Amino acid sequence: MTPGKPVSTESLIRKVWDENPPANARSSLYSHVARLKSHLHGAGEDVRLRGGSGTYSLETDPENIDYHHFRALCSQARSITENGDVDDAFRLYGEAGRLWRGEPLSGLSGSWVVHTRRKLEGDLLAGTVERVELELLHGSNTDLVPELYDLVNRFRFDEKLVELLMLALYRAGRQAEALGAYRQAHRRLVGELGAEPGPGLRALHQRILQGDPALLPQSWRGTSGNTPLTSLPRDVHTFVGRTPEINRLIDEWIREDAVAVLAIDGMAGVGKTALAVHLAHRLADDYPDGVLYLDLLGYDAEHASMDPATALERLLRLLGIPIPDSLDERVARWRTALARRKVLLVLDNAIGHDQVGPLLPGAPGCLVVVTSRRRLAGLDDIHSLSLEVLPPQEGAALFGRVVGSRRALHPDDVVRVVRLCGHLPLAIQLAGSRLRHRPAWSVADLAELLGRNDRRLTEIRAGNRGIIAAFELSFNGLDEWQQRAFWRLGLHPGADITADCAAALLESDRAEAERLLDDLLDHHLISEPRRGRYRFHDLIGEYARLLSNREPESARAEVLRRVLDHYLLMADTADRLLYPHRTRGPAELFHPPGPRPGIATEEQALSWMNAEVDNLLLVTRYAADHGWTGHAALLPRVLGRYLDVWVRWAEAAELHTRAVEAWRELGNHSGTAYALADLSVVRRQTGRHEEALRLADEALTIQRALDDERAIADLLDNSGLVYWQRSEFDVALDCFEQALRLRRALADRHGQAASLTHIGIIHSHRGDYPKATEHLLGALGLYRQDGDRRGQQVALNNIGEIEFKLGNHTTALGHYEEAGSVYPDMGPQNKAIWLNNVANVYQLLNRHADALECYRQALRIYGDIGDRRHEVDALNNIGNCYARMGRDGDALVHHQKALRISTEISERREESQALLSIGGIHHRANHHDAALAHYEKALAVAHAIGDVHQEARTLDEMGTALADVGKEARAEECWRRALDLYESLGVVEAELVRARLAR
Fold first, then answer.
1. Which of 269, 314, 611, 742 sits most deeply, having the most CB atoms within 10 A of its CB?
2. Cα(722)–Cα(3) distance, rounded to whole angstroms?
3. Are the CB atoms for 436 and 403 separated by under 8 Å?
4. Quick check: helix, strand or coil at residue 146?
5. Does residue 181 contact residue 152 with C-beta atoms inside 8 Å?
6. Which DSSP string do the residues of 636-694 spell out, in sequence order?
7. Strand, helix or coil for residue 801
8. What value, to the nearest 5°, has the Cα angle with vertex 581 and ends 575 and 586?
9. According to the model, what pLDDT value does residue 285 have?
């Protein structure tokens, strides 16, 4: 650290052993120094470790030591930056950065080491920040993002790094991610340091929120040393030939005519994209301000073609430019950005001139290369190249590159294969790939196979003859059963296919389906991105569907019926295993089979649902869109409980809405009522209470006319939950008790348990803890009889909450832990509620760090699933925890947010809690008028909703605030009212108030 300067023996001993040196420290030091001298002996004549007069010194040029060399390089970089030599500054900063390897003084300890390590890391950080600022100043954005994320994670409280990360993200068009980086930093600073971000970070946050264009770089490229912006795909190694076309494009059109727009059109599979990308790589150096690529999805089987507004959004985002709302404004901003710039833009897979026109520059200087299966005749002043198939020689070269250099390739056989492929690049690649993965085949074997039925290449005609010819080549390599499997699998309406689903499609057993899938995989007609899950490439899937159109409509309909039945039967089996006690609806609606293959246990059912849920959503939408009304009606019903538990509420709402329409189309009143009930549950979960009640009332009217008492009880229970969430406890209790009476009459034990649970919760809110406990214990017993682990978990959670309110914190924690162990695979909402309850106990046991961690986990889940009601609860609890830690500033932030949200969603109980807690903060700050004002509001809300415990707590704290300002008579009045309420509840707080009154 100090080359050339003497260091005393005492200083060395202190730095090595801190304040606890061994008895033989000096002799030990001498032996260490001797070994160091030995090690340094071979380092050169200019490195010596010398001793004398009780000191040692390392005699060498400081720049022989990485740390000092690093500092010198950074200093030089700063100096030449001031002189404007940015390229050399980048080089010096890069050289400095490469000197660092791992943690400074790794493996050493002691106070001197810790201090020195911090200094070293501080110097590294300072040099890195200087370099990053320089790079940002001169246009580098995207490449810095991963490095800055790593630095922010390493130096977690350095606000300057967060500013640089946000700026890099914003300039890369990732505004939302930049704002997310601020939110993470804010949470980290507030949660761990109890400090708000500094003014610089806050100011940058506001500027990004407002889309400040002044934050954008003056140029995409800036100084000549920076790398131009590029989003171009890599140039494929198999690209061959096209020399005449490239020469014509470059020499005759682009360079001589300074053409602005070049269109490459041709049939599918002819190599338009490959040529455009290869050309762009060749020309990249001529366009120093960037090379951009955008796939317009004009011929994508899975996605709609990209409209101009979306395309401009993508392009502007690539440049880090704020995105206006209207198409005209986006066009103007895009053309302004391209003015006086030299940019090469590749627009791939355009569907027509209307799609491309708004994306073209408004001034000369840029080059646009467009590829399309159509000639873009509607665009003025463009040059068009219609691309043909490859000449035989180039086709042979492409085949050789695909097969690889290790295989023997007889020239005549290669020529024959390429001819049978129609010289189409995509067909040649497919054939070459097949040979590459068939070690036992020769090229002659492949040529013989391709030559058997080559007439099919001319017989199948559709929109894209070349693509059809290319895929026909692979199709002809299949036997009859494989061909039938191929077109049948092409009818699958989901995202991917399993062997079980294929068996249903193919009317085969699982073993035969697996064999056929493996055959198709070997022929590269399907892929296996995940084990056991197969999918078509988009174009091959389109070809398979085109093939299916040759089949009779009745045959196609039968295949689709089988696949829809498969998903319906499998989903129903999984639903019955996961939720055996839910009401199914009239038996005549659906006759379920026995357990399906692979689904015999609850665990297998959950695994299947998790794997297939996205397919099930697609299949259900397909059924609704294509006239399969029965499946569109039934599938949402069997999926409803899973989607609710696993918080797929947006998808559930869509499916249940369409199910209502399907049942009405079928004229089935019972089915309509069940679908309305399912939709009501989703609306309740998402806080749309009025709509939830309206839907439930409509369903109740139908079910009462049908005299379906089980369904009526379910609807009353759901309505009660809506009223509970609105803090209308009396109305909720009436609904729950009506449901309980019906369920007892029906001997519906599981339904009774649910009603008892909900009634217990209401009694808990109203402060009648003995009644609440009685009902919840009754529910727990029924759930145990039925073996319902989910129900047990809910009941135990609520029993624990009552014990918590009674002050029995250890007992409460025991119930929560039992709840977590009886059913650990709870859904996200129940998981968050459980975490929140456990944290409440941790807080009162003074385990504040554990409590905050649990609260934050719960809060993240509530935010992810959109559960605002429980989010408010978690915010209030975090605020209370901070208050117990003496951090009232942090507490106030959380309670104020809770108050705002609770007011927005009419969650009155949490509104009362937020007001009470804010009042307490003002009280502790001696803001007595503000405290009493908040207590009065909290008391009014608690009294209005009938929450006795909350009313007592508010009176209790209000009395203390009054006593502190000398208003003893009013204080005594509040405490006596609080005491009466506490005594009616039987809680421990009564003793505290009684003792206070006695004093």
1. 269
2. 75
3. yes
4. helix
5. yes
6. HHHHHHHHHHTT-HHHHHHHHHHHHHHHHHHT-HHHHHHHHHHHHHHHHHTT-HHHHHH
7. helix
8. 80
9. 84
Place of tokens 């890599």: 234
The residue assigned the tokens 């108030």 is 993
Residue 130: CB partners within 8 Å, gap ≥ 6? Answer: 74, 77, 78, 93
Judge contact between 862 and 832, C-beta under 8 A. yes
Joined together, the tokens standing for residue 689 give 């209470």
For residues 637 and 194, what is the distance between their CA atoms, to the nearest angstrom?
Answer: 48
Alpha carbon distance 510, 498 (integer Å): 10
Q: How do 7-8 and 527-530 pair as beta strands?
A: unpaired
Rounded CA gap, 431 and 423, in Å?
11
**156, 129 in Cβ contact below 8 A?**
no
* Predicted pLDDT of residue 301: 46
Tokens 């704290």, located at residue: 957
Residue 719 contacts residue 693 (beta carbons within 8 Å): yes
**CA-wise closest residue to 609 among 583, 581, 644, 633:** 644
- Amino acid residing at 229: L
Reported as a single tens digit per residue, the pLDDT across 453-473 is 554 333 222 223 334 655 665
Tell me the C-alpha distance between 627 and 608, whole Å: 27
Q: Which amino acid is at 647?
A: V
* Distance between first and last Cα of the chain: 67
Provide DSSP, 169-201. HHHTT-HHHHHHHHHHHHHHIIIII--PPPHHH
The span from the CA of 923 to the CA of 931, in Å, is: 5
Low-confidence ranges of the chain (pLDDT < 70): 82-86, 138-143, 172-173, 213, 216-228, 252-253, 255-259, 267-268, 299-303, 430, 437, 450-474, 477, 522-525, 537-540, 585-597
DSSP 517-584: HHHHHHTTSSEEEETTEEE--HHHHHHHHHHHTTS-HHHHHHHHHHHHHHHHHHHHHHHHHH-TTS--
SS3 category, 926: coil
- What percent of the chain is helix, strand and coil (3-state, nearest 5)? 70, 5, 25
Bridge partners (DSSP) of residue 490 are none
User: Quick one: 83 exposed, middle or buried, by C-beta within 10 A (0-12, 13-18, 19+)?
Assistant: exposed
Within 8 A by CB and 6+ apart from 425, the residues are: 269, 270, 271, 274, 389, 390, 395, 398
Which candidate, 351, 277, 279, places its Cα nearest to that of 311?
A: 351
Q: Which of 219, 95, 200, 206 is nearest to 158 (CA)?
A: 200
Q: Which of 506, 503, 496 is nearest to 536 (CA)?
A: 496
Say how many residues make up the chain: 999
pTM given for the model:
0.53
Sheet holding 344-350, edge to edge: 291-295, 344-350, 367-372, 261-265, 383-386
List helix spans (H) across 18-62.
25-40
User: Contact 997/976 with Cβ under 8 angstroms?
Assistant: yes
d(CA 6, CA 500): 79
Q: What is the pLDDT of residue 423?
A: 75
What tokens appear for 558 in the block?
A: 């039968």
Structure tokens at 54: 């009780």
Q: How far apart are CA 174 and CA 972, in angstroms?
A: 59
Residue 827: helix, strand or coil by DSSP? coil
What does the alpha-carbon distance between residue 571 and residue 430 come to, in Å, rounded to a whole number? 37
| Cα 69–Cα 72–Cα 76 angle in degrees, nearest 5 | 140
C-alpha span between 632 and 1 (Å, rounded): 75
* Chain centre distance of CA 574: 26
Q: Which helix (H) or strand (E) holds 347?
A: strand 344-350
Cα radius of gyration rounded to whole Å, the chain: 36
From CA 777, how far away is CA 356, in angstroms rounded?
68
Dist. CA 93–CA 789, nearest whole Å: 61
CA distance 276 to 270: 12
